[in-house]
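Deliverable D4.2, example record:
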Amino acid sequence: MSDAPPRDTTIHTPLQQLRNRTFDEIAVGDTAAIERVLTTEDIQLFAIQSGDVNPQHLDPAFASSSRFRGVVAHGMWGGALLSAVLGTRLPGPGTIYQSQTLRFLAPIRVGDRITFRATVTAKDSDHRRVTLACVCTNQDGLNTIEGEAQVIAPTEHVECQSAMLPEVRLVPDANAGLTLLLDHVRPLGALRVAVVHPCDVVSLGAALDARDAGLIDPVLIAPMAKLQAVAAQARLDLTGVTIEDAEHSHAAAARAVELAREGKVQALMKGSLHTDELMGAVVASASGLRTKRRVSHCFVLQTPHYPRPFIVTDAAINLVPDLEQKADIIRNAITLAHAIGVSEPKVAILAAVETINAAMPATLDAAALCKMADRGQITGGVLDGPLAFDNAISMAAARTKGIHSPVAGQADILVVPDLESGNMLAKQLIFMGDAGSAGIVVGAKVPVILTSRADSAESRLASCAIAVLLAQHYRQSPP
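Output generated by the structure prediction step:
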């Protein structure tokens, strides 16, 4: 046995150079460890490799009603990381695994920072066998897994470069979320929708696609000759579609608002006219569609890098909202969250930092909005802010900064300081973060489906589906 004192080699980052310890170099009490923060991707990758698709690990809705009240890691994910300690740290390359026992003591959740540690407890010189106590400990000092491993330690030194592993990126079925959404709303029936000035191929095709999907019963309001020319150009069949002739886009917007006011349509959908022209007609004092709240826009987004759909607001209508306007933006987003099935949404009020700074108005507004919620002026959700973006969507980032919050790391709604920051955030998520999206205006008496020329066909269908859910909510709880 070596006379060297026990050594602790906790390693927080992947090894570039692998070095082992031979049997003769190992002493009782030697220990090695690695740290890892559990991510949703870790769970998904383990499920893919193992075939263990237990919904306790993969389905947040199912897991929320289980004894663990949320998604947890597979137990053997922890066992695999302990194996990594033995194979790369102690004893390291050349180790032969003989046996392993594990006792699962507490769940490991997304965002938990786990230390996987192996400590030498005995050596058998006759067989070069080493016994190690294995333990997984979370950031709160709680042991989640305990066990014992027996290995045959190497007799020769090994020193080599760590293998270069390929980058693995999870790409879910791009249409899976949309398919689930459409399946959910289809039983609600088609929504009667005034489609305002759909005088280009994209907007007219989107209205007809939504009709074919069973989402809307469109009323096309546009100059008849122009509409027919577009349909002929794109070979779109208008047979059976209700069409109202309007002289121009302004007249089309006014007529759509009139139909909504009279209850003849339950939603409006933007065609090829400018957003300001449509929304100007909606919010006009004589429109009959205004409520006590200011209207605002919500992006409903779903990205493979976040475990649930979420809302970004306001990124399309209110340029630089003041405190009371932000309060309405939050109330509208909470209403939409309720409509899509989130009973108590977690609302993160974003700023560049998570501390209150008098030189940064967004942080002051965030603090005031949270106090308004404390006083019952904003209800239906849980608010916290100011929160920087990383703290709002990453539990690990929040814990690193010592933030203890019911919202941090699990936000359902992201409230941006102004339109410019919100628009850039949403479009970065869509175009660089592979996010699926839907766009809807909330705060009027009917939903307004607001899409962009750059939106995909899937995004336009998703926007119509969200409108169906919101219109149903309005029937039960009029705005």
